[in-house]
Every structure is written in C-alpha cells, then in structure tokens.
Amino acid sequence: MPELPEVEALALDLQGRLTDRAIVRVDLANFSALKTFDPPVSALEGTLVDGVTRHGKFLDVSASGLHLVMHLARAGWVRWRDQVPELPPRPGGKSPLAARITLDDGSGLDVTEAGTRKSLALYVVRSPADVPGIVSLGPDPLDDAFTVDRFREILADAGRGQVKGVLRHQGTIAGIGNAYSDEILHAARMSPFKPASSLTETEVQTLYDAVRTTLGAAVARSRGLAASELKGEKKSHLAVHAQAGKPCPVCGDTVREVSFADSSLQYCPTCQTGGKPLADRRTSKFLK
C-alpha cells in the first residue's frame, strides 16, 4: 500500500510531468472506482494542470479550478506512459486499469489496481474539502504543526488503544499505514500492542522522534525517483515489515508476525517486546 513517503514522491514526480499540460481525455476502465458524479469526469477535458499535491495518502491533481483526487488504497498505483494508446481502454474485464489520463502531447498516466479486491477511489471535485476522507484526516506527521505536544495529546486521547493502531488511524495521524507503523515502532523499540496512554514522557519523545526520522528518511530517499522505482526503494529499506522469518538488522533475532483478518504486523521480539512473542489480539478497534 502506498503510504506518505511514496505518495509524496508520486506527487513530486507527477508535478514535474503534468504541470502546465492540458488534459485532453479521461477514460474510466473501472466505473466503480469513481466516487463522485458532479462535476462529471468529462469536465476535466480541456483543463490545464496547475500542480500536484498530497493530503495524507491522497494524491491531488489540480486543473483549472477542478481537482482529480486519487486514493490508491491497498493495491493501486500510477504508471506513466510516454505515449498513450490511441484507442481508449475497454471498460470491465480483468485488466488492472482503473482510469487513463491523456495529455495534449500524447503522454499520460494509467491509474491501476492489482488483485480482485477493488478499493481504489477517484474523485472529481471543486475543492479537496469535498472529499470526505480528506476532511477527516488528522495532522500530517511531517508538518511543523505536528509537535511533540500535539503528539502527546493524540496519545492521551487514544486512551488504552494500542499504539500501532493509533499510528495507522488516518483520522488521528495522516499518511502512516501498516508498513511504516511497523518500521516506526521498531525504530522506537516499542511493542505495537502497548497502550497509547501508558507511555512515559521519555517514550512519547522516543516515539515522536521515530515518526519524524523514519518518515523523513523515507521521503528523502524517495524524492526525485520515478514512480516505477518507488516500490523497490521502499522494500529495500524495510527492517521488519514483510520480513517475517528473517533476521532483525539490529539484533539478529528472528522477525515475528501477528496476523489479523485482513492484515498483519511484523516486529522483533528482542528489540520491541523483551523477547516475548505477541498474542493475536483481533479485538483491537484500531487494528481492524
């Protein structure tokens, strides 16, 4: 799943490719991906791209007063094409293509989603505030306004909620998903099941520093990379996420996994839980 660092890099890459180009055609291959009807998709045709930004994990392409907002969900991606096929894509079928955007020079991009579980979402709106998921976002963890005091308040408000879920909850903190929450907690040497309100002042500062450092480093590594390079860059720097059964790069212990109904987390027992394996707590409201 693309998270804050990858979406930030995608926005930067697309900013350079799309700005000042005209959108001449938008073709939907998966109609269920479009979550809005007014303005229609056709309203984007003939607009000039002003820029590309990010809101949490949402990509925002602004064009002549309209916004094409994308949430890539678990398996979505954006693929640049130097030359878009002349024939429009055929709706339906088994193709991973959800939408295609064609520019005035014949280039464009494909918005794709792998797998059978389709949750990618596209919105055509007059303002990003018209997208419910953006309105409900918590603070961006890389903004200057995200201070350690604000983070302390978030943890206190979460009560006994597990800290892994607090980091992932988009209405609490925007942009952190399953992978980077695993990486942040490993960097902080903290159990993902630790209750948020139980953290000491030292632990709050340690976790805050891990959030800023882990995400900041990932953004710095991703900056300037093309969309096609981002997935590989992310995977090559993961310490524990998706590394179950491999040695921890810090202490050499075996990375363990806890599975849930539709996700899993990975951690190092020696670094994070005093050597104890974690139980499967499926009832956590934050880990659903």
Automatic annotation (TrEMBL):
Molecular function per GO: 8-oxo-7,8-dihydroguanine DNA N-glycosylase activity; class I DNA-(apurinic or apyrimidinic site) endonuclease activity; damaged DNA binding; zinc ion binding
Pfam families per UniProt: Fapy_DNA_glyco, H2TH, zf-FPG_IleRS
InterPro entries named among the record's database cross-references: FPG_cat, FPG_N, H2TH_FPG, Ribosomal_uS13-like_H2TH, Znf_DNA_glyclase/AP_lyase, Znf_FPG/IleRS
Alphabetically ordered keywords of this record: DNA damage, DNA repair, DNA-binding, Glycosidase, Hydrolase, Lyase, Metal-binding, Multifunctional enzyme, Zinc, Zinc-finger
UniProt domain Formamidopyrimidine-DNA glycosylase catalytic: residue ranges: 2-93
Transmembrane segments: none
CDD domains referenced in this protein's UniProt entry, alphabetically: BaFpgNei_N_1
DNA repair as UniProt keyword: yes
Cofactor(s) the protein needs: Zn(2+)
DNA damage in keyword set: yes
Domain FPG-type: 239-273
Enzyme Commission designation: 3.2.2.23, 4.2.99.18
Biological process annotations from GO: base-excision repair
Reactions catalysed, as given in the entry: Hydrolysis of DNA containing ring-opened 7-methylguanine residues, releasing 2,6-diamino-4-hydroxy-5-(N-methyl)formamidopyrimidine
Family affiliation: Belongs to the FPG family.
Designated name of the protein: Formamidopyrimidine-DNA glycosylase
